[in-house]
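In response to reviewer comment 3 from the previous cycle, which asked for concrete evidence that the modeling workflow produces usable outputs, we include below a single protein chain processed end to end. The sequence was submitted unchanged, and the resulting structure tokens are shown without manual editing.
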Amino acid sequence: MKYALSAGAFLLLGTAMANAAGIDRSGQPVGLLWEEGDAFELSFGAVDPSISGTVAIPGVGVLGSGDMAESYNQIGLGFKKQLNDQWSVTVMYDQPFGADVAYPTGTNYPLAGTTADLNSDGITGVAKYQINDNFSVYGGARMVSVGGDVEIYQNGALTYTGEFANTSGTGYVAGAAYERKDIALRVALTYSSEIDLSIPTMENGNPSLNTEVTLPDSWNLDFQSGIMADTLLFGSVRYVDWSEFDITPFGYNLATGDSLVDYANDGMTYSLGVGRRFTDDWSAAITLSYEESNGGLVSNLGPTDGNFGVGLGATYQVQDNAKITFGMKWVDIGDASTDLTPTGLPAGAIQGKFTDNSATAFGVKLVTTF
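The workflow returned the following structure tokens.
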């Protein structure tokens, strides 16, 4: 059975675009490990989220936040070297985490003017050992650099600024896979360890204590299987231990008794797709994705709770050793509530309500083998 398509090409739709509403952006993919021979890949994604909400303030009325989520781009690349029949090594670059927040000014929303940026770069080096035709194991090291800044306005007044210098930390990646090439079957389980960072911090223009941050560990289960001639079923399950992720600058905590960003629950994201080869050169796929919601109050810097997405992709075999995949995706962002209660009132007494939000995304991925 000949397959011109692979789940690795179409899972482009499940990386930068799957989590268009949250800070988990790349999904930390390892699909390049299974390209034939030596290979190089380059991917680019553009994501445009639209997130707005309202708050009802007694004696004032209902105020709208305006669109507080900015568009962003994602880049990924990787190189694989096949050393012999059993050993290969791969180096990959991604942008695993990010946030781009900007509450518009002039809305009278309590947080109007507030901005926050989180950027990251990750480099992963992995060695893969093919035990036999069916089983393989792989592992390696991962380095992630994170930095950002935040300005918080409350009722028109600047109340807090934080600058977090780009800081790197290291962890590891380990996994195993089972394959049956005659039916294009592959099941791969990948673990990425947590990474601890001690980030030099400036608060309100003055040096502060380092902010201790743990980037969460995660599990990725990726699978694909031929279900009929020229037709592939594929998908993934991703678990992230978000409850261990917490950004609590010293000065901010001293003033508010709270964290700048934290999560009460871990996260699960599911995707499922079907791909079909129509000609020797063209194949296409549709994917569905779902990220569970957890309920409760969420951060004003990330007013989303779960999402559901639909993606379409097409792959063109440019020549025998090169293929290019185009994708687009629409994401329905889950409704969320935030706490906007002034000091002196019970927590949660006044809430921002973010509903009927969405995101659109476009991506392209080039893979060449040689």
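The helical segments are 7-10, 250-256. We consider this sufficient to address the reviewer's concern, and the full set will be provided in the supplementary archive.
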